[in-house]
Amino acid sequence: MSSSFKHHLSRVFGSKSLPLVGSFLMGLVLLTPLTANRALASEWRELAQKTVDYKAEVDKVKLGRKEQNLTSIKLRCDQGTVNLKQIELFMSDGESKKVDNLGVLTNGLSSRAITVPKSEGHLERIELAYDSVGSQALGLAGVAKKGKITVLGKEKASDKEQASDKD
After folding, report:
1. In a structure prediction context, what are the per-residue pLDDT tens digits for the chain, which is 167 residues long?
2. How far apart are CA 166 and CA 61, in angstroms?
3. How far apart are CA 80 and CA 140, in angstroms?
4. DSSP letter at 67?
5. Which among 12, 71, 75, 123 could bridge 111 via Cys, Cβ 3.0 to 4.6 Å?
6. CA separation (Å) from 151 to 19, 20, 69, 128?
7. CB under 8 Å to 167, separation ≥6 — which residues?
């Protein structure tokens, strides 16, 4: 620890409790990775990346076995400006969910979370209707870049995680 930090701690806690405070801080630093892993288990993870043309288009994202337990999805704009017109979620049992008017995303922004329908089946594919704001001429001039979207998914917590969260 730096001497100015030690001096500040001794003023706040008193000089006799300084070793105790240092031990507490060290323990906190060591335990942080253990608790972070549990939090990451239900965090957003990348499912697919798409480049969005300047014209209106519909892209399909087929999901594999690893993505069967998703509870929600969202889109993140990684480049350019994207006009999200519609997202449709298709379940393996034939059920689908359509979400309209998601708005415009600019670089760094994410859409709201879209809940995957609870059904007998699993999420099989996602259809995205969108276009990139701008034109090819503006893209060549360096004024507007094609949009890049990342599809993110959040999985439901496993039974073990849910049981440990209740403890």
Report:
1. 556 655 555 665 565 554 554 555 454 444 444 444 344 446 899 999 999 988 889 999 999 887 778 899 999 999 999 999 999 999 988 899 999 988 999 999 999 999 998 877 888 999 999 988 876 565 555 656 788 999 999 987 764 444 444 44
2. 35
3. 13
4. G
5. 75
6. 48, 47, 15, 10
7. none
